[in-house]
Amino acid sequence: RLEEVGYRESTQVQKEALPLLFSGRDSVIQAQTGSGKTLAYLLLVFSVIDTNRSAVQALIVVPTRELGIQVTKVFRKLAAKFESDQKSSAVMALLDGGTLKRHRSWLKVEPPAVIIATLRSLCQMLDKQTLKLDAMKVLVIDEVMEIFSS
After folding, report:
1. Which of 6, 24, 45 is nearest to 142 (CA)?
2. Max Cα separation, the chain?
3. What pLDDT digit, counting tens, does each position of 21-40 carry?
4. How far apart, in whole angstroms, are the C-alpha atoms of residue 87 and residue 85?
5. Are the beta carbons of 46 and 77 closer than 8 angstroms?
6. Which range among 52-56, 67-71, 80-84 shows the weakest confidence by mean pLDDT?
7. Which domains does the chain have, with CATH numbers?
8. Partners of 139 in beta bridges
9. In 3-state terms, what secondary structure has residue 61?
10. 3-class SS at 105?
């Protein structure tokens, strides 16, 4: 199915990272931009979330709104192909500048399976005690060095 969304061959990073990611152990993947890290961790996310469960099961923390938008687009593109015969995975993008009040309402009524958030927006939601992460199976910190330097 990956071919249907434009992915033809695994990159070197994916060949090395996927077995480690799917082993269930904590992992650190360090590689250049454009090397395929995002697809690698999103494949892991899709493999562990239960689309019938209304709970946050994966949290992806990104350093910038722009990267968050990019990751969200890739997620939705994959979801459209992977989930044609089952309930769609809801993804919520908590990115700086968004309408967090509306997101808080959504989180209370029907939490998404996946949240993609900037650190600032994530902290705002945690401060309001709106975000429940007790069902979380996967935590991804994308561009960790950039997050810590900002």
Report:
1. 45
2. 43
3. 999 889 999 888 888 899 99
4. 7
5. no
6. 80-84
7. 2-149 (3.40.50.300)
8. 59
9. strand
10. helix
